[in-house]
DNA sequence: TGTTAGCACTCGTCAAGCGAGAGTGCTAAT
DNA sequence: ATTAGCACTCTCGCTTGACGAGTGCTAACA
């Protein structure tokens, strides 16, 4: 059963008012503030119907109405109009977001800070998931007779390296051989794949020196792969929620803060979300049943996908926040194109 | 004016009781629980004197007494007896603290987790400050015609490296030359020194190619030094404080949580503290005036110094917590000795 | 038939008042 | 110097009553 035009207007008014004031809104105040051309009594009747349909709830008999998750969902899907960023917010992002590929993590973290500053909510940002990245080549570089650098180059140009110190000296030949050896074995395979299957694989080799070197290198190799796979999560502005009336109860505040302590879990949940701007409201979301979570994705070289997000009470300015996040992720994606590339981010890439 | 034996006993009893129950303690309950052989009235008189001397305070006329910062200070300095770790805590540390030099940061973080789990308070751990570390040598390693690895080796064996991608190709000779060049310039100088003075120094060189390469490398070099200097701070168990009666007020809880958001500032404050086990109570400490902060130091190779710490209300079990921290830092220091070294951690080190 | 005015009713909040309980501080007796 | 006794103070929990906000229903109206 569809809602009438008037019901939609009333619902919209209630949502607007409640988002603003965080207090149950009554029929009279709607009639006064929003010019709907009907009396409070009529509004009351409509409200009663809306409540029956599940769009509104009632804290207690004589309180005003509060929008339900379902109402917000309707609002986000149908009623919400795209909002233009305020000049102030736009300027803030343009001036303060100094994105640089070289300092990837710092940029990401910065974006999260900015996001929480603008929205006055808690926010986070994650570096891209790299489990679909494939290995281009592996190289071992000599440092001194017992020290070497292990370098892994991924297909998106992602380069990671670690320094290893062995218990015994190695030879230059075995180093070169192992480099080739490993490159042949792993080239084109995804990090995920290698990490999961490599433990079982045999390390054996004909040449004694090589075999020994490989035995020394493999643990570091696997650990480095793991590091490459790790998604970094930065959470910012968690304490912002203390300013919101819904978090004056210690218990809710505590629950919220627990997110901080469960970063790994949270990261997993966020990785599982779809790309693009995604809004999950209240019960819809698996993280905090009484919060709304909005995530958006940015791209690196038009390929790898990272996420940023905002967490707050279901009562939030959906239109503004989604616009801000869209703008911000577009900016990030633009900054993270390969240098010199113009279009899809694949030009100028050759190994 | 010194305290009498009886006054000390009473003070001790009040502290013990208050630490346990978090409620103002009255004369009657002390007389009952602790066998001091005097009546409540006598205790009342003594309490009154103790209050006059500043060891106790009075929330209001008809409440019991609460120990002041000064009382805790006296307790920590004079009254407190070293406590043996409970077998349970000892076992927990021994079993769960898998310290490994290779995964330094993870170990440190783990230590913080453990500490907050045992003490049920908020805790933190910092990686060592490296500002006194000196540079041993610098090396540039070729990867492909535009990519190279910059490696900086410190005197304590600390190795850091970054991958650089240049806009234009470089030559092998200029690479070798620059490596030597930089090593000569920076060998023996502290990271701090180089970082502070290098921006001013002239990049100029006779050879054009070298000069250009150097211009490309220097920014990364400086940034990498900065990374080496950065102390990592891990905070754990912040939400533990929600279980304490002193943090049922949202405002205090918020103030506490703000620490999370001010990690840089916090790190600076912690670096400024003395080594060893340091207890600062309430007003004594510059971080949170109504908290107690206990820090302790661990050593790496008997040289670099990192810190772990506990933050909580002034009402805490000083004896237990200091013992735990001492035990934990000893364990860490032991684990972070150079492999193969026995005594001062300087054997087996040769470049 | 949809809309509205009127009114009784419900519920939460706030302030005031009261009694109980805990603890002190003083005084006088030991 | 210590202690028993007692008046006094203050908090806490409970109840009460007034007030305000808001609803839901009914009857009148266009």
How many angstroms does the end-to-end distance of chain A come to?
60 Å
| Backbone structural class of chain A | alpha+beta
**Total beta-strand segments of chain A:** 10
Oligomer state of the chains in this structure: homodimer
The shape of chain A is elongated
Helix content of chain A: 40-55%
Strand line-up of the largest beta sheet of chain A: 7-3-10-9-8
The two chains with the largest interface, and their residue counts, are: A-B, 34 and 33 residues
Radius of gyration of chain A: 27 Å
Summary tags:
351 residues, alpha+beta, 5-stranded antiparallel β-sheet, elongated, disordered C terminus, DNA-binding
Written account of the structure:
The structure is a homodimer of 351-residue chains. Chain A has 351 residues and is α+β, with helices and mostly antiparallel strands. In chain A, 45% of the residues lie in helices and 18% in strands. A 5-stranded antiparallel sheet of chain A has the order 7-3-10-9-8, sandwiched between helices. A 3-stranded antiparallel sheet of chain A has the order 4-5-6, covered by helices on one side. In chain A, helix 2 (27-33) crosses helix 3 (40-52), helix 5 packs parallel to helix 12 (318-335) and helix 7 (172-186) packs across helix 9. The first copy, chain A, starts with a helix and ends in a 16-residue tail after the last helix. At the A-B interface, strand 4, strand 5, strand 6 and helix 10 of A face strand 4, strand 5, strand 6 and helix 10 of B. The first copy, chain A, binds a DNA duplex (30 and 30 nucleotides) through helix 3.
